[in-house]
Amino acid sequence: MVKKAIIPAAGYGTRSLPVTKVVPKEMFPIGGKPAIHYIVEEAVLSGIEEILIVVSKSKSIIVDYFDASLELEAFLEKNNKLHLLKNTTMPKVHIQYTRQPYSKGLGDAILQGKRFVGNEPFAVLLPDDIIYNAPTPALSQLIRIHDQFNANVIGLNKVHPDLVSRYGVIDGDEERTDLYKINHIVEKPKSNAPSNLVVIGRYVFDPEIFNHIESLTPGASNEVELTDAIGMLLSNQVCYGKIIDGDRFDIGTDDDYINLINAMWKDKE
Ligand code: G1P
User: Fold this and answer.
1) Which residue ranges make up each domain of the chain?
2) 60 CB-near residues (< 8 Å, 6+ apart)
3) Fewer Cβ atoms within 10 A, N terminus or C terminus of the chain?
């Protein structure tokens, strides 16, 4: 049973500057809701009961967003606009927050959740990746595999070979058309990528991953890479890769951000 999830939302969003100086990319609007709203919804629909969002100093807007807005509620009530109140409803789930004091990469952000997780398997959802049109919520697809095999699971996507250098890339044994037993993982390979199966920002881990993250030292860019910890974990634990059923949009890229909005817009017509 996977009941807890970590959502790392502490990064500077350097790929999307300058707007990310003041608007975190997790708050980029998509069809009237910020990106992170879809991520929290997906977690809840996948059975998650407690969420830890890892923020940084400049991300208080995320905390405000999921909070009740008493002033707004009072305003709507006073002005006979109570029918709009439903538009302010947030997903029903317990959310807590912690700050990542230094921007030391994805691995370090996840490590901030060690106490929150305790001794249970847990999920990680990266708010850059929005999975649209999934027949069942993307995270629930991974949780199913975790519950079946009692092992770590990572979300995968098959991409054009030109795009592999943007992501974590795996090499694995095909167990069935959508499931791989991972042998090897490498972060953003510049050349000689082991396949075109890339990591999507959805993971289910056993808590041992924290020991591996703790044993890492930051690389050249002063970042502790989650991918390196996963690589270490492969030496003594099983990790599956599941191709996620659904359309993946990496909203950290302008193309996918626009494509997702267009896809939603078309479906509305
Ligand atoms: C992170 C991971 C990478 C993964 C990607 C998915 O990279 O390090 O392995 O493929 O998320 O979005 P980032 O987007 O933080 O550079």
Assistant:
1) 4-268
2) none
3) C
CB 137 within 8 A of CB 44: no
Give the Cα separation of 247 and 131 in Å (integer). 5
Q: Is the pTM for the entire model greater than 0.85? A: yes
Ligand 1 probe mutation, 157, 167, 251, 257, most atoms within 8 A of CB: 167
Name which of 153, 227, 216 is nearest 185 in CA terms.
227
Question: Cβ < 6 Å from ligand 1: which residues?
Answer: 106, 126, 128-129, 167-168, 187, 198-201, 226-227, 250, 252
In percent, the amount of the chain with pLDDT more than 90 equals 81
Q: Say which CATH architecture domain 4-268 belongs to.
A: Alpha-Beta Complex (3.90)
Phi, psi at 91, each rounded to 5°: -55, 140
Q: Average pLDDT, stretch 53-80?
A: 91
